[in-house]
Structure formats: C-alpha cells, structure tokens
Design goal:
The complex is a heterodimer of chains A (512) and B (509). Chain A has helices at 4-14, 17-30, 35-46, 53-59, 69-87, 93-109, 113-129, 133-149, 155-192, 199-209, 212-215, 223-239, 243-259, 261-266, 268-284, 288-305, 311-332, 335-351, 358-375, 378-391, 398-415, 418-434, 440-454, 460-473, 478-486, 489-497, 502-511. Chain A contains 27 helices and no strands. In chain A, helix 13 runs antiparallel to helix 15. Chain A is globular. Among the domains of chain B are: 4-87, no CATH class; 397-509, no CATH class. Chain B has helices at 4-14, 17-30, 35-46, 53-59, 63-67, 69-87, 93-109, 113-129, 133-149, 155-192, 199-209, 223-240, 243-258, 261-266, 269-284, 288-305, 311-332, 335-352, 358-374, 378-390, 398-414, 418-432, 438-450, 459-471, 478-481, 484-493, 497-508. Classes of the chains: A mainly alpha (512), B mainly alpha (509).
Chain lengths: 512, 509
C-alpha cells in the first residue's frame, strides 16, 4: 500500500541541492521550536536509498518526536512544498494576472475603486494577449463587483457590457476546450496507443481530422486554438507516417511562435519542443539546411534560458534534444558521437529519473537501444532494452513495447544465446498471437528467428536474404513503417548476408 | 490629471495603524538596500494632509531619492500592495486552494504525478464544495495535463470524463453569469435608478422576473446562482411592497445559507444581511416572534464568527447592522436608544475611519441626519449632511444624495435659515437636474414659495403640502428615509414632529 512515507520519500529525493538548501532555510524560519526535528527527519530520509520506516524509527528511538512520526511526515511533506512555492520565481503571464487581481481586491477593500479598476484593466490586457480565458473571467468578476458597489450613471450599460464580455469569453473557452479535446483524442490514438493500424482507430483519426474545427483553420480564433489545431494535424500525419507533412506543420508552429515572441518568453518549453521536433524531422526528411539552422536556434534558446527557467525545464530540454541527437547519429552512423551520447545519458538518466516525462524516456531509451545494436554493443543494448520493456507496456506506448519484445530476440540472437532464444521466441509468438496483434512484419521477424534456430550458421545468409526479400515486399502499412523507423531491419539483414558489422551495412545502404 | 502620486497618497492614507506597521516590517525584509528610501518616502507622504509634490520634495532631502522620485513612487505603491497581500492571509477556501494549486504546480514540475493527482483530488473537493469555478477550471486543466503526460490504462475514458466535466462546468458558469446579471439588473433598477414605479422601469422589472431561468429554482445547481435567484425575487417583491413574498424569499435565502453552513463561515455577509433585512421586515410587520428569533440568530452568528472574519467584512456587517438599528429607533421614536446608538456609531466611525465602505457610510450619514431632525438636534443633522456633501467618495449613491438635497432644505427651514434656503434651492435644482421626480419638483416649488411668506402665514401652505405629498408618487422612495407628510403636518399644526410621529405610531399599534 502506498503511504505518505512513499510520497515524502519521492518528494525529498526529487529535490535538487539548491531546493534542499532552501528548504532548510525555510524550516529554520517557519517551523517554530520543532524546526530541528523536521530538518533531522528530512536528512534521515534523504540519506536512504529506499524508504525504510524501521530504520528511521531506530535512528530516532531516543527522540520524543518519533512517537508522532506520521504527523511529522505529513507536516514535513507540506512544509517542503511551501518552501518550494516561496522561492518559485514564477513570472509567467498567469502569475502576473493573478497578482494584479489580488492587488485590485485589496484596493477595492480599501474603497480605492478607481485604482483597483486600473489594475484590472492591466490584468485584462494580459489575459487577452495570452488568451487566458479562465483568468479573464476572474478579472471580469472583479470588475463586476466594483461596478455594482460603486454604480455610476451608466451602471446598467456597464453591467450589460460585462455580461456580454463574459458570454463571449465563455464561448471562446468552450471552443478552446473542444480544440484541446480533439487534439488529445488524436494524441491518444497515435501516441499512447501507437498501434493504430486497427481499422477502427484509423477511422477515428480520419473522423477527428475532418472535424470542421480542425479542417478549417479559420475556425481557430486565437493562437492557443491554432496550436491545438496544428498539434492535431501533426499527430494525424505522424500516425500516417507522412513525415514531410509533419515537418511542414512544425515549421508553421515555429513561425507562429517566432512572430508572437511573448508566447516563447512565457512558456519556452513549447518552443524548444517544436524546435527539437523540427530538428528531428528535418533530419529524417533529409533537409540538411533546416537541421543546421535549427541547431543554431536551439543553442541560442538554451543560452537565453539559462538562469531564466527552472532546472526541471532545462533538464527536459536537454533530454528532448538528446533524443533528437541519437536519431541523427543513428541515421548518419556516427558511432563515436552516438557512443559519447549514450555514456552521457547513462550518467544523466538515473540522476534525473523523475524529471524526464515518461513518453520522452520511452522514446529515448528505445532509440538508444537501437543505436547500441547498430554499434554492435549488444550487452549494453540488452540492458537498455530490458529497461525499455520495464517502463513500456501494452497500455502505454504499446508500439514501442511490442518493438522492444522483437528487439529482445534480435539482441539475444546476436549474443548467441540460442538456448534461451528458443523459449523466448515461442513465448513472444504466443504473446502476439493471443493478443491478436500480430502483423505481417512481426510474423516475418518471428519466423526468421525460429528458422535461424533450426539451421546451422552457414545457412544464415540465405535465410536473411529471404527475409530481406520478403520484408521489402511488405506493403508499407503503418506497423511496418513504424518498425522500420525504430530499427533498420534491412541493414541488419545485409550485415548477416555479407558478414559485415551492421554499421558498415547501414553505411552501404545509405550510399546506395 | 490623476497621477500615480494620487493613487499612492490615497493608498497610504487608507492604511490602518497595524497595516502601516506591517508594511514597515515587510519593507525592511524585502526591499534590499533601498528600504530606507521607501520608508522615508512612505512616512513623508503619510505626514501630508493632501498630496502636494512640492511640499513632499521639500520634506525629502536625499538627492538620490529625489532624482528618481517617480520610480520610487511606483515601486512603493506595488510594495505596499505586496505587503498587504502577504498579510491578508486569513484562512479561507481561496487561500487554501491557492496553496494547493501551488503544490500541484510544484509536484507536477517534479513529475510526481501520483502525488499531484492526490492534491488535485483534495483541491477539487474543496473547490466544488465552495462553488469556486475558476479553481475547478484550473484543476481540470491540471488533471488533463497530467493525464496526457502520464497516461493511464483507461486514458480514453478518463479524458472523456474530464471533457464532460469541463462542459458541465462551463454550463454552470453560464448559469451563474445569467442569474448574476438578472440579479444585478433588478438591483440596479430598484436601488440605483430607484424610480421603479415608472412605467418603463416597471416593464423592465417584469421582463427580468419573467426570464425562464427565474421561474423555478429546482434546476439551479450552484450555491451562488441559487442565492442570486432568491435575491432577484426578493428585490422584485421588495420594490412591489409584497410583504408576504418578501418574507418568503428572505426566509428561503436564510434557509439556503443555513443548509450550506460552510459558506456562512467563509462569507457570512449575505446571510447576515438577509437576517438584518428579515429583522427589519419583521419589526415593520410587528411580528414579535420573528423579530426575536432573528435577533437570536444574529447574536449567535456574531459570536460564532468573531475574530474569524477579515476586518473589512466585520466592518461592513457592523455598519449595516447599525444602520438598521438607527432606522428601527427612528421609526419607534425611541430617541434615547437612538442617541446612545449614535454615540456608538461615532466611536466606530472614528475607529474604522476610511475602512467603512463609502456606500454604507453615505446611507449612514443620511439616516443620522434624518434622526437628528426628528430629535431637533439640527446642528448634528447639518454636520452629517455636510460630511455627505463634502466627501467626494460619498457621492457614489445618487439616490441618497437626491434625498439629502431635499432634507437639507427641510433642515434649514427648521433652523430658520430662510436666506440660505434661497441659495440652497439653486444648488439643489442644479443637482437634481431636469429629470426631477414629481415629489422632488413639489418640494422645490414649495420651498421656493414658502420663503417668500412671513412665518405666521406658513401653516396653510404646509397643510396643502401634506395633502399634495400624499397624492404624489414617491418614485425614488424619499418618504422611506424621512416622513415628509408628518413633517408638513407638524409644521401646519404647530406640533413637534416627534409628537406627530408618536401619535401615528400609537394609532397604528
């Protein structure tokens, strides 16, 4: 059973050095006489590798506070959060609007209504600029309160105007929620249930794509709606593996953001995300100029963001960029740079375990595992792939999970674990068959492994040749395209046909 | 032209002693090396009686501060607000929700989604309990954000349910805005425009009350929306003088509050006002049981909430209650009780000074002026009317000011300042403008004529006046503030106004 201890342990472990220091300062100022106990408990938990309550109780058996340990834990959890809120330098549009509304309320309570209205005007301007409808409604409520408390000659007209504004904002909010809903539906179709070859899902994607809100760009009344619209289209094309269209949408998104720089300053994460994705898709689609231009933009953004955004955001930008980089190195067979990046990720991933979003983690580890196979480092590839199987599943990133099961067989084959492989192949085949998710490409790979296990080594080239021939003949359905994007099966087959390292085969393939 | 200096001056002058102290502590902690300058500037402005930049510059000797005075003023304004913001942290659902929202943001940024979801659940319960639309909307957005970032098995079902919840919330907000508008429209028609018995306004009132959303309370979901529903009906029937319906809706409003006690604990203003209005209504209706029951409830709520409310709410409740008490003493002709109450009000006014809301204070001044005319304490009455006319912030209630203009003429007639009345008439005509009500017009004409006659010939015109007032519609409710009929009768008969009022009271009882 999960208890507050787990939460507290995870929270303490998620803090960086400076946040820990801030907490201690905060606790010394705000925790009265018992501050020492909180700091002691904090340090004790921080020193653990995994939460062990007996160890904690044993450590403090002579202290009186241990009798109230559950109370102390809850209080410590909340105190850490308070300490973080007190130092968080959130300076985004939302925080500014909230501060202006709060200040206007204070001024109203002092009957300084004109001054309060002045602040509300400012708050409204920012809320409109950023299309923040929830806070815009809050501003209008504050304005209404002043209007009825201090009625002037045109009070009826003013009150009607406020209502009209409220209704207009509500309509926009409703529309924005619909856009967000459509965008999420598409993301769920493509991203979370990536195995979208099932006819119903493809149909669902078409249905979303053809909705008037998405089909006609004129329906997007503000930038946020437009971003949702582009996001929906992006995932649609991603799901269909139409990579040039994906790239074009990313370009459009970047241009929109660059024209409206206040959106970048307010939330640089969206911009950096779009840049990274654009880099990736420019590489995949072979747009070399765009790759170089985007790397320059990314570096400029990183420099601009340093000290301006929280560490968590910097970490995310780093991992996103690394994911794009490993794809570039895999595609260009740049083993040296790729291995350096793997080393860097081996060091950074455990350190920022909780900071990296799960989707990104899955995607990054999958790309690292594929790269390691290409590089011929099968032991490291196996370690990475095991991690991938642990964190993905049929309910989350099913496409990656299914791929990892196939890659697992390939790695064991390369490691020569034939005895183990026989059992594993049968097991994997049953799994695919029982779940009714076996596609032609999956079947080909599983059959190849089975056949390889039956034959002597000298028969391998012929089997790989046949596999290569059949694999190429496969219709370019989404599953095959997905698999090919995750691993270069053709180069793998060539490496065995010609008895050369996979990286050489990939280079050869590239030259062709 | 209004500048930041006026704003700053008015803000500093609006602070009470404790707030000034808190600001100084806050500034010492939060404004780094330049804190001394802010404190100097604060004290210099605080020492002024009205804002005078030249005088201020003379008081500030520090050349560096003088050089950047305008920058310091803007910064000081914001610093004061920040300090007030920090110390306004009396615990209510909004402060709790703000803290929970901050916790959600922190936990989400650390990708501690499970923990964040737990806080979201807790915050949503609180936000729904207190009908806080903005927070519910923000919490649903946070929930959606986490769902997409850390997908669960049943992500589609969860996202559908979130979307439905968002749509329902939008409907609920719509319902609230519609009822709030109708309630405000009705209140504006009755309270501010006051001539609700005119055909046009009467038609508008009927239009509002027949709006489909006001026909039945059953489908109304939000606490505040339902409150607006009852209040709209209450104001409507109040304007129509339907006593039974006034009682009904006041009681419904009170019941609604009592069945949601947590709302009363958090913001007892509406509940207390409903109780005060019920007390007043019960008193006028001579319903002793209702009066006693309501008094018991009022006392109990006052005790329960003492020290738990923000100062401004306590002040508003205090003065609203005092206003009602003054009216009751005046209508009962209980001069002794009224005089004692005035002493207490004077003390409260001194204590709370600028913190008393302007609309409450202006009404209070008018009621005090009326009471003192009846009590023949004309100097006191003149004092309250002068405060009303000479304080710009008290000009906010047009209806109060219109009555006060007529009352001023009554007062100076009683004081025998006939020469002054000639002059006051000019200013009253100017203030009341072309759109005078019939009663206002009647009174202005009467005073224009009466001052031309010798005192001994006044009785007959007063007799005519009392007759004419009775026949004239009182479209802005002037007679509810001051009984002009009784006053005219008193002047016609040579009796004291108080005697006439007591006679009428005894006949009525």
């Amino acid at each position: 059973m999960k208890t507050v201890s787990d939460d507290l342990f995870r929270l303490i472990k998620s803090l960086n050095k400076s946040e820990k220091g801030n907490f201690k300062k905060f606790a010394s100022r705000n925790a009265g006489g018992s501050k020492q106990n909180y700091i002691l408990l904090f340090d004790a938990i921080d020193s653990l590798d995994e939460y062990d309550e007996d160890l904690i109780r044993n450590k403090f058996k002579k202290e009186s506070f241990i009798r109230q340990l559950p109370v102390y834990k809850v209080y410590l959890f909340n105190m850490i959060l308070r300490s973080m809120a007190s130092v968080s330098s959130a300076d985004d549009a939302g925080s500014k609007i909230r501060e202006l509304i709060d200040n206007s309320k204070i001024l109203s309570s002092k009957a300084l209504y004109k001054e309060a209205l002045k602040l509300l005007r400012k708050a409204k301007e920012i809320a409109v600029k950023y299309s923040n409808y929830t806070l815009l409604l809050d501003t209008l409520i504050a304005e209404r309160n002043i209007t009825v408390v201090v009625p002037d000659k045109n009070v009826s007209e003013q009150r009607d105007n406020i209502y009209f504004e409220q209704i207009t904002v509500i309509d926009k909010l409703k529309k924005l929620l619909e856009y967000s809903w459509l965008s999420d539906q598409m993301v769920i179709c493509v991203e979370q249930k990536g195995d979208f070859t099932i006819a119903e899902r493809a149909k669902a994607m078409e249905k979303i794509y053809n909705k008037p809100l998405i089909a006609n760009e004129k329906n997007a009344e503000d930038l946020n709606m437009m971003f949702y619209l582009l996001h929906t289209k992006l995932f649609y094309h991603l799901g269909k593996n139409e990579l040039n269209e994906v790239r074009a949408i990313l370009k459009k998104e970047l241009t929109l953001l660059e024209i409206n720089r206040h959106f970048i300053d307010d939330n640089p994460r969206n911009y950096s995300g779009a840049l990274i994705n654009y880099l990736l898709f420019s590489q995949i689609t072979g747009k070399r100029d765009a790759v170089l231009e985007t790397i320059t933009k990314l570096n400029r953004l990183r420099k601009n963001l340093k000290r301006k955004v929280p560490l968590a955001m910097q970490v995310q930008i780093t991992f996103h960029a690394s994911n794009a980089e490993i794809l570039v190195y895999r595609s260009t067979c740049d083993i040296r740079r790729g291995k350096n990046l793997v080393r860097k990720m081996d060091e950074l991933l455990p350190r920022y375990e909780s900071e990296v979003p799960p989707q990104l983690k899955v995607s990054l580890i999958s790309n690292l595992a594929s790269f390691l196979v290409l590089a011929g480092d099968y032991k490291s590839a196996l370690k990475m792939n095991n991690k991938l199987m642990d964190i993905s599943g049929l309910s989350f990133k099913s496409d990656v999970y299914l791929f990892s099961r196939l890659l697992n067989l390939i790695i064991h084959f390369e490691l020569g674990n034939y005895d183990l492989l026989e059992y594993m192949t049968e097991n994997t085949y049953k799994f695919f068959r029982d779940k009714k998710i076996i596609h032609r490409a999956d079947n080909l790979i599983l059959t190849l492994i089975k056949d390889l296990l039956k034959e002597q080594k000298n028969a391998f080239p012929a089997l790989f040749d046949e596999f290569r021939y059949n694999f190429k003949k496969l219709s370019a359905d989404n599953n095959t395209q997905n698999l090919t994007a995750m691993f270069d099966f053709d180069s793998w087959a060539v490496s065995h046909i010609e008895n050369i390292p996979m990286r050489e085969a990939a280079k050869k393939n590239k030259l062709k | 032209m209004k500048t930041v200096s006026d704003d700053l001056f008015r803000l500093i002058k609006s602070l009470n002693k404790s707030e000034k102290g808190l600001f100084k502590k806050f500034a010492s902690k939060n404004s780094s090396g330049s804190r001394q300058n802010y404190l100097l500037l604060f004290d210099a402005i605080d020492s002024l009686n009205e804002y005078d930049e030249t005088l201020l510059r003379k008081k500030i000797k520090d050349p560096s501060l003088l050089k950047q005075l305008s920058v310091y003023k803007v910064y000081l304004f914001n610093l004061i607000l920040k300090s007030l913001n920090q110390h306004a942290s009396y615990e209510n659902s909004e402060t709790q929700l703000n803290e929970l929202m901050a916790n959600i943001r922190t936990l989400t940024s650390k990708h501690l989604y499970r923990e964040a979801k737990k806080v979201i659940k807790k915050a949503k319960e609180l936000a729904y309990k207190f009908d806080k639309h903005k927070f519910i909307m923000e919490l649903l957005a946070a929930e959606r954000h986490i769902l997409i970032l850390s997908p669960a098995k049943d992500i589609t079902e969860k996202r559908i349910s979130l979307f439905k919840e968002q749509q329902e919330l939008v409907e609920r907000i719509n319902e609230f805005y519609s009822l709030s508008l109708l309630c405000d429209r009705m209140t504006i028609l009755v309270d501010n425009e006051a001539d609700f018995r005119s055909n046009e306004n009467s038609k508008q009132m009927e239009e509002i009350i027949s709006d489909p959303i006001l026909t039945s309370p059953e489908k109304i979901e939000g606490y505040y929306a339902l409150n607006n529903f009852y209040h709209t009906h209450l104001v409507y029937h109040g304007a129509k003088g339907n006593t039974a319906e006034i009682f009904k809706y006041l009681k419904l409003q009170i019941q609604h509050g009592e069945s949601h006690k947590h709302f009363i604990d958090e913001n007892p203003q509406n509940y207390v006002y409903a109780l005060i209005n019920l007390l007043l209504q019960a008193h006028f209706d001579k319903n002793q049981t209702e009066t006693e029951d309501t008094l018991v409830k009022l006392e109990s709520i006052k005790k329960r909430l003492k020290g738990k409310l923000p100062r401004e709410t306590e002040i508003q409740i205090l003065f609203h209650a005092s206003n009602v008490e003054m009216i009751i003493h005046e209508k009962n002709c209980d001069m002794e009780a009224g005089r004692n109450k005035i002493k207490q009000i004077e003390a409260d006014l001194k204590l709370y000074a600028s913190e008393v809301p302007a609309n409450t204070k202006s009404l209070m001044m008018l009621n005090l002026a009326c009471f003192n005319i009846i009590d023949e304490n004309y100097n006191a009455s003149a004092k309250y009317l002068n405060i009303l006319f000479n304080s710009p912030e008290l000009n906010i209630r047009n209806d109060v000011n219109r009555v006060a203009r007529i009352l001023q003429l009554v007062l100076h007639y009683e004081m025998g300042n006939f020469d002054l009345i000639d002059y006051l008439l000019v200013s009253a005509r100017k203030f009341l403008g072309a759109k005078q009500t019939k009663l206002e017009n009647l009174m202005l004409k009467f005073f224009g004529n009466i001052i031309k006659l010798p005192k001994e010939k006044h009785a007959a015109p007063f007799d005519e006046l009392s007759f004419a007032i009775k026949r004239t519609p009182d479209t802005n409710g002037m007679l509810t503030y001051f009984d002009l009929v009784s006053w005219a009768e008193a002047c016609a008969s040579g009796k004291k106004l108080l005697v006439i009022l007591k006679e009428k009271n005894s006949i009525n009882s």
